[in-house]
Amino acid sequence: MSQSSGPSPRRLAAALLGLLQGHLTLLSHELEDQRNQAMSLILLTGLALIFALLLLIGLSALLLILYWDSHRVLVAGGLCLFYGLAALGCTVLILHRLRHAEAPFSASLEELQRDREQLLP
Fold it and tell me: Which of 67, 91, 92, 100 could pair with 71 as two cysteines, CB 3.0-4.6 Å apart?
């Protein structure tokens, strides 16, 4: 009997399953990292928003009380302008970060690309 020069179908299937297992493991780790990062950011963002709103309410009330007799309309308008500009700035920053965010699962995609280059001549 002569030996064939190529790998056996069984070894090829085992190699492909090994590659698939490695990719799935990497993908699961990346999913877990993304989930943990998202949950942490959501929690911290929520807390920051609550405290920032409490601060803004307190400062706004203080300004209105201080200038109630002389310039209450001007102070109220200035506060509205400030809050509007702050909201617009935050919106622009959010959109910029969303447009320039790193693609999720980039490590998995790079690994798949390397495997494809190695398997295909």
Answer: 67
